[in-house]
Specification:
The structure holds 2 protein chains of 2 kinds. Chain A is an alpha+beta fold. Helices cover 56% and strands 19% of the residues of chain A. Chain A has 15 helices and 12 strands. Chain A starts with a helix and ends in a 5-residue tail after the last helix. Chain B is globular and about 50 Å long. At the A-B interface, helix 11 of A face helix 2 and helix 3 of B.
Amino acid sequence: MIAIIIGIFAGTFASALMRGMMEQRVENVINTELSHIQFHHPDFLKLKEPEKYMENLPEKIAVIDSAQGVEAHSERIIISSMVSSAETGSGVQLSGINPTKEKKVTNLHEQIIAGDYFEAGKVKRIVIGKKLAEKLKVKVKSKVVLTFQALDDTLVYEGFKVAGIFETVNSTYDETHAFVRYDELAKALEMPQSTCHEIAVLMEDNKAVDSTKINFAKAFPSLDVQSWTDLSPEMRVLTKSMELMTYIFIGIILLALLFSIINTMLMVVLERTKEIGMLMSVGMNKLRVFTMILLESVYLSGFAGIIGVVIGYGTAKFTSVSGIDLTGLYGEGLRNYGYDPVIFPDIDFPMVINITLMVLLTGVVASLVPARKALKLNPAEAVRTDM
Amino acid sequence: MAIIDLKNVKKIYNDSEVPVNAVNGVNLAFEKGEFAAIVGPSGSGKTTLLNMLGGLDSVTEGHITVDGTLVNNLKGSKLINFRLMNIGFVFQAYNLIPVLTARENVEFIMELQGKPAKERALRAHELLSAVGLAERANNRPNKLSGGQQQRVAVARALAPKPKFILADEPTANLDSKSTENLLEIMERLNKEEKITFIFSTHDARVVKKAHRVITVEDGKVIKDETKKQSE
């Protein structure tokens, strides 16, 4: 019974842990990297060329502002650039942003670990990720040189001072992304007025993303309008398969549980051969004998299973507030894959009900073999069995 | 008229290479209210005979009739139900359910019969009083001595108001005092309830008490002796 309790507890808690990890990953992707909906020139994502920009920004922003459920939006210039320090260089995706607007769309400003996020008044400042800073061996106030191609194909060299260093849960993102002010980058690139490469839109509710995206696509047929699931198909697969994976995981545990209960119940039948023989001798019919074994198996699995689920649910709920910090164990590995090393397990009531029902069903299935064995006993021989 | 009638009953076991004639052409009849013992050495066929009487083992040849019903013809649930309504069993090792109290052990057969709770409780109390265990009604078997457990088993066998009781070596695990006590109780119940008791036994004390002694050897009845009862 203790084995069943531990098994079900582990299954429930591990499922909540997996679910929490996935939810956090999706949340991070939306809040730090992609937001809910993005607009681009139709060829921009494919070619990543600076001249593939969108024009007439005020007209587009007016439509976005008038749409229902839009919480905020931010316009960005996005180019590929080399960033060099005195020590070395690295390729990055350089984003020109309006810090005030960007703060409303992404939470990068909350993840600054050194310096600041474009404090007012200071010019030619760059915000980079921790991993990039380590690679370039720079710190706050260090000078770096950005090299990129302007719209007229000339190479531009611009010096920037490191204003702030951020650290997200995705170390790859930290190594490959850097941010400067929109105006400064637009000027260096010689971008025309009221243009940008990307408009990121944050919705009030994730559920409204698909319908709003369709409306935007109708309003701007010449633009590429994509939701976060279009931009990150692996996230879509991850989200959709998350539930299935959870149940497959629980299913594997229940399969082990099934054999454990069968084994226990076979031992019960063996130990109680004499008693079952007596019951059959005195006139207990086969249906009652079968029901007796079935109920015992269901009680065993149900009782132990429910205790396991309750402990798993309680532990998941408790740790969903405090979080489980795996930084010391697998922090770097998790960050490399974009997962937060501080995991907040996530469990909901339907999941608990489903696991409980699956456990009870396992109890029913597990009773079939021992029940069959009990029914095959010869009562005359069984009552004389010496155990 | 005989309540139990055996006509040329044979039982052949074909499990081993050589078929074993465990019971070989037995003819017997038992009247209502008999107190009979089947005796014989080990392997003589007395347990097989008892099992066939109780419908626990099939008959290879011949007929067993109980109160006009041909037991050989009963199969599956009909046979199980026949046992439930007509036969009481007392086993050598008592075979009480360890998790139930003495009262519950007596009651559960009546529950299988579908008797109402009030009737079950009344009958259980009546029978436990009859075997002298009314005050131990709420004790589980592990709190009772072997003799007391067997008395509960007798009460359990009587609970469904059977037509007869089959007792397979009921005193084999009991000391002299408990055996004496049990036999007195069974004899009294036999007289009071007019229920037929049939024992298979090696025990000379049971043989001494029995009103009829049937001796079996090599699957055959070699002696059937009815004692004269003093009033």
